[in-house]
C-alpha cells in the first residue's frame, strides 16, 4: 500500500501548494466586507491608506 501513497504524494503536494497560493493572493482583501460594514470613518481612512500601500506602483516611462 506504500506504493499507492508514493504515487499520490506529488499530486497531494501540488494541491496543497495551489491552495496556499490562492489564500496568499487574497491578502488584505478578505477584510473588505468587514471594513465596508464598519460605521467608523477612521477605519475607512486607514483602509484606504492600506490599499494604497499594497497597490502596485505605476511604471515610469
Overview in brief:
This protein is mainly α and 61 residues long.
What does this structure look like?
This protein is mainly α. The protein is 74% helix and 0% strand. The relative contact order is 0.08.
Proportion of beta-strand residues: under 5%
Largest sheet, in brief, is: none
Report the uncertain regions. Answer: none
Radius of gyration: 20 Å
Helix content: over 70%
Instruction: Compute the number of helices.
Output: 3
Overall outline: elongated
List the keywords.
about 75% helix; mainly alpha; about 0% strand; 3 helices; about 60 residues; elongated; single chain
Give the helix/strand layout.
Blueprint: H1 2-26, H2 32-37, H3 41-54
Amino acid at each position: 500500500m506504500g506504493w499507492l501513497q508514493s504515487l499520490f504524494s506529488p499530486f497531494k503536494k501540488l494541491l496543497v501548494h495551489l491552495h496556499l497560493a490562492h489564500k496568499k493572493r487574497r491578502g488584505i482583501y478578505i477584510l473588505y466586507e468587514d471594513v465596508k460594514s464598519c460605521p467608523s470613518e477612521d477605519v475607512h481612512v486607514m483602509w484606504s491608506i492600506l490599499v494604497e500601500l499594497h497597490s502596485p506602483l505605476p511604471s515610469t516611462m
